[in-house]
């Protein structure tokens, strides 16, 4: 997926998409320019607003600084719980679960994302539900459960199409479905 130029575009989770240059077709991880991400992290400094905390979590995660990312993600969940909306809390929890995923805590991440997806769907927040399903699919993918990953990616695609998500933003989900299909057929063949 080709990212947009530096603007104020955000994904369903409220995170900036301008830093994403594409997705690794094997790992499904975001491809970023580490220098740009570090510069943005430096700009954010120690800001404590929820949007700044969420952005810091994501930047630390994509830079591979998972211990720091975990600490900030836990802080963002607390801040959202104390002063944010229900949507804010869901965004923070989904991002926290994505940090658990990269740290290999698949069961905990899957459980948290399941709860978030169910709550978002129950509230009629299709974009947030899609965000949760996409991340839950990535957890299953990393855990080598390609059938479940594919099902979650398909659900995310359906919800994103339902909300009128632009085609270029659907590319990451389509890539994920293709990757899960490839891995599934390779696993069956061996």
Task: Characterize the structure shown.
- With 190 residues, the protein is mainly alpha-helical.
- The chain has one domain: Alpha Horseshoe (Serine Threonine Protein Phosphatase 5, Tetratricopeptide repeat), CATH 1.25.40.
- The chain has eight helices and two strands, in the order E-E-H-H-H-H-H-H-H-H.
- Strands 1-2 form a two-stranded antiparallel ribbon.
- A hairpin with a 6-residue loop joins strand 1 and strand 2.
- Helix 1 packs antiparallel against helix 2 (50-62) and helix 7 runs antiparallel to helix 8.
- It is globular, with a radius of gyration of 16 Å.
Question: What structural keywords apply?
Answer:
two-stranded antiparallel ribbon; Serine Threonine Protein Phosphatase 5, Tetratricopeptide repeat; 71% helix; 8 helices; globular; 190 residues; mainly alpha; disordered N terminus
In short:
This protein is mainly α.
What is this structure's SSE topology?
Blueprint: E1 20-23, E2 30-32, H1 34-44, H2 50-62, H3 66-83, H4 86-102, H5 106-123, H6 126-142, H7 146-162, H8 167-189
Helix share, percent: over 70%
By secondary-structure content and strand pairing, the structural class works out as mainly alpha
Number of domains: 1
Largest sheet: 2 strands, antiparallel
Q: Quick one: how many beta strands?
A: 2
Report the CATH C-level class. Answer: Mainly Alpha
Name the assembly state. single chain
């Amino acid at each position: 997926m080709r990212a947009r130029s530096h603007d104020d575009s955000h994904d369903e989770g409220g995170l900036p998409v301008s830093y994403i240059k594409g997705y690794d077709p094997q790992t499904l991880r975001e491809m970023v320019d580490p220098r740009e991400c570090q510069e943005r992290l430096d700009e954010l400094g120690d800001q404590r607003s929820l949007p700044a905390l969420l952005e810091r979590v994501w930047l630390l995660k994509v830079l591979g600084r998972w211990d720091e990312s975990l600490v900030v993600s836990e802080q963002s969940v607390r801040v959202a719980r104390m002063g944010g909306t229900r949507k804010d809390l869901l965004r923070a929890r989904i991002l926290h679960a994505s940090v658990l995923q990269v740290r290999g805590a698949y069961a905990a991440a899957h459980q948290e994302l399941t709860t978030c997806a169910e709550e978002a769907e129950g509230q009629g927040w299709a974009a947030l539900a899609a965000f949760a399903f996409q991340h839950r699919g990535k957890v299953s993918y990393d855990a080598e459960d390609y059938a479940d990953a594919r099902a979650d990616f398909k659900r995310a695609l359906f919800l994103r199409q339902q909300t009128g998500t632009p085609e270029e933003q659907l590319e990451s989900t389509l890539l994920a479905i293709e990757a899960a299909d490839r891995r599934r057929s390779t696993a069956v063949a061996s």
